Amino acid sequence: MPRAKLTLTVPEEVWLGELARLYPDATFRVLAALSDDVDAGVGLAEVVAEDTSAVLSKMAGYEDVTDIDRLQEEDGKVLIRFRTTMPLLLFPARDSGIPLEMPFEISDGEAVWEVTAPQDRLSALGEQLDQFDIGYTVDYIHQHVTEEPLLTDRQRRLVVKAVEAGYYDTPRESSLTELAVEVDIAKSTASETLHRAEEQIVKEYVTQLESE
């Protein structure tokens, strides 16, 4: 499945864009964010700046920021929970059906996203960004290879044995009972293990089709 890295330019007229440009050396690291209704959102973010109090004071002054809670503080860094009536960056992801990968950073008016989605969803994301007047550049798009194996060792061994025994041949050369006896497991266990393996294989195949 394609994996893309995008650099977004937050519009200056939006509070987040203005704030990030007023403090270009500050970094806003968004750890979690969600829309709690149609027009509002809540976020958890880490703000790193030389003067975090000044940054948060300015942030609290925006009409679109309705609540800020300081959860944890140390020199040059503060963890906050905030609510806003203008969570602009959530809208394109939501409307294109792509979940945002956390964390992502915003600095000097730019946000960096990494997303994994089928090609049609990535195209929809681009259309949504255009619709919300959010400029962006695509840093890269490449095929994402998952680090987790598709099947467990037990599933893989059973599927290989099933193929070798002719279980998937037409006509079938081996029954489920015979396969279970050959690998010395219960018939019910063989059935469930094959079913879960087949589910993973089919879903991965469909995902690959959607990404082409």
Description:
Keywords: Transcription, Transcription regulation. This is Transcriptional regulator, contains HTH domain. By secondary structure, this protein is of the alpha+beta class. Helix content is 39%, strand content 30%. The protein has seven helices and eight strands, in the order βαββαββαββαβααα. The protein has helices at residues 15-22, 52-60, 90-96, 119-131, 153-165, 176-183, 187-211, and strands at 2-9, 27-35, 41-48, 65-74, 77-84, 104-107, 110-116, 135-143. The longest helix has 25 residues, at 187-211. Helix 3 packs across helix 4 (119-131). The protein starts with a strand and ends with a helix. The chain has two domains: 2-143, no CATH class; 153-210, no CATH class. Strand 4 and strand 5 form a beta hairpin. It is elongated, with a radius of gyration of 24 Å. The protein has an eight-stranded antiparallel beta sheet with strand order 4-5-3-2-6-7-1-8, with helices on one face.
